[in-house]
Design a protein that fits this description.
The chain is globular, with a radius of gyration of 19 Å. The model has no long low-confidence stretch (mean pLDDT 89). A hairpin with a 2-residue loop joins β6 and β7. Helix content is 10%, strand content 32%. A 6-stranded antiparallel barrel has the order 1-2-7-6-3-8. It has helices at residues 139-142, 166-174, 182-191; strands at residues 9-13, 32-37, 55-61, 73-74, 85-86, 99-112, 115-121, 130-136, 161-164, 207-212, 215-223, 226-233. By secondary structure, the protein is mainly β.
Length: 241
């Protein structure tokens, strides 16, 4: 009998909400997650030989999009939200089936009490993401340098310099022991400008909040090309190896 897709695990990510998640994997190397495998896939047998690979393909469900109507065309952020393309010419989350695919770095395989978890880096996955499958990335076959891409020929680069107020600087230092990469994570996420494309030209000082590791990072655009982190508050949730 045919089997229906069932999650093999769930992501515990530094990204607590959709807002702030990089729009592609690998853009923020400080973005980490732990993939908790479900029984019976949390045994050493399923991951035998996996530590021989540096990168993995993760197939997952856009669980925040479940129940939403699929779109036939979308406005990709890389085009400034001004040009409409067919959904199959994009990586939009609004798909006929809410399935995503990401290449991530495998930091380590954690074996504890007879179960297995995978620590990942460079993720674009929100906390609670159901994972359908894991496959090794094969550089000799999966990397195609001759491939062409119409509107995404190069990775996006940081648009903003990120500065911290004295208060935010002090608050960031308070988490240095448990979250040593917190500052780099904040700078990388905000530097790419997580705002919707239609906010890209705003310089009105609007206050935004990105939640990372359970911490609310409050920030605003203060000048063209400059973001100011105003405060970092919360209890914090450590998700690092």
């Amino acid at each position: 009998m045919p089997c229906s897709p069932t999650p093999v695990g769930v992501i515990h990510s530094c990204f607590n909400d959709k807002f702030g998640v990089p729009r592609q994997p690998g853009l923020v190397s400080a973005a980490r997650a732990r993939l908790e495998l479900f029984p019976p896939y949390n045994s050493a047998e399923t991951c035998l030989g996996l530590d021989g690979f540096s990168h993995l393909w993760i197939t997952f469900i856009f669980h925040h999009c479940l129940g939403q109507r699929a779109r036939l065309s979308v406005r990709p952020p890389r085009l400034g939200g001004n040009r409409r393309l067919g959904v199959f010419a994009s990586r939009s989350t609004h798909r006929p089936n809410p399935v995503g695919l990401s290449v991530v770095t495998l930091d380590k395989i954690e074996r504890r009490d007879g179960t297995v978890s995978l620590w990942l880096r460079g993720v674009d996955l929100v906390d609670g993401t159901p994972v359908l499958d894991i496959k090794p990335y094969l550089p000799a076959l999966d990397a195609r340098p001759e491939a062409r891409a119409d509107y995404a020929q190069a990775p996006p680069v940081a648009r903003f310099e990120v500065r911290f107020t004295p208060i935010a600087e002090r608050q960031c230092r308070e988490y240095r022991d448990d979250l040593p990469e917190l500052r780099r994570l904040i700078e990388s996420v905000l530097g790419l400008d997580p705002r919707p494309a239609y906010h890209a030209d705003r310089l009105d000082g609007k206050r935004y909040v990105v939640t990372l590791h359970g911490l609310e990072v409050c920030w605003r655009v203060v000048h063209e090309g400059v973001i100011e982190v105003q405060s970092i508050t919360g209890t914090g949730v450590v998700t690092s190896p």
